[in-house]
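Handout for the seminar on molecular recognition.
Each group receives one record of this type.
Step one: identify the two inputs.
Step two: read the structure output and locate the region that could contact protoporphyrin IX containing FE.
Step three: write two sentences on what you found, then compare them with the reference statements printed after the record.
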Amino acid sequence: MKTLHSYWAYIVLAVLIFTVVKAIIGLTQKKEFTHKEFRLGLFTLITAHIQLLIGLGWYFMSPWYKALKTNGGEVMSEPMARLLAIEHPLMMIIAITLITIGWSKHKKQVKSEAKFKTFAIFYGLALVLILARIPWSNWF
Ligand code: HEM
Ligand code: HEM
């Protein structure tokens, strides 16, 4: 489960970066929002939701959650444990929520510009949050 989460993260990051870059290009060059962009946005949403599921699955079997339940004080005072037990999971849930909100909002919009803008803002912010709270030293 942990390994799966670790590899799936590459896919999530790759498609998310791709979506954000395309949204910014689409916005600045006033491109038309076609079904290709729609599919990319949806694909990113789905990979993120799957990562959420895998992340939650691993979280509740992980030693980090156990440590938090039995020894919360120590987890909070130790930066790496706090990152894995609290900061990363919480921040990723917020990020995935932003992606989901961005997805819902873009569906209700009609103009290409508005759709690209919504993707750029919501998916972009999610990307920043994800990059900020990935346990980099554990990865690769
Ligand atoms: C903990 C697990 C999950 C939660 C809490 C969750 C939550 C949500 C929410 C709130 C929406 C609503 C978005 C809207 O308003 O349109 C949504 C949409 C969606 N989710 Fe998830 N999801 C989860 C897992 C998954 C998984 C595992 C998949 C795929 C295998 C998935 C695929 C989708 C798709 C395709 C949509 C709708 C896209 C559309 O609007 O057409 N989700 N999810
Ligand atoms: C966009 C969503 C997410 C991304 C890109 C992501 C990415 C990552 C990465 C790269 C790692 C390091 C992997 C390694 O140690 O090799 C990691 C670890 C971890 N993630 Fe996530 N994650 C996401 C969402 C979540 C969620 C929603 C949860 C739980 C609610 C979660 C729980 C964890 C835990 C507990 C670890 C620590 C693994 C360990 O060392 O035991 N992640 N995540």
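Reference statements: The helical segments are 2-28, 35-61, 63-70, 72-77, 79-108, 112-132. Residues 42, 45-46, 49-50, 52-53, 56, 100, 103-104 surround protoporphyrin IX containing FE (ligand 1) (CB under 6 Å).
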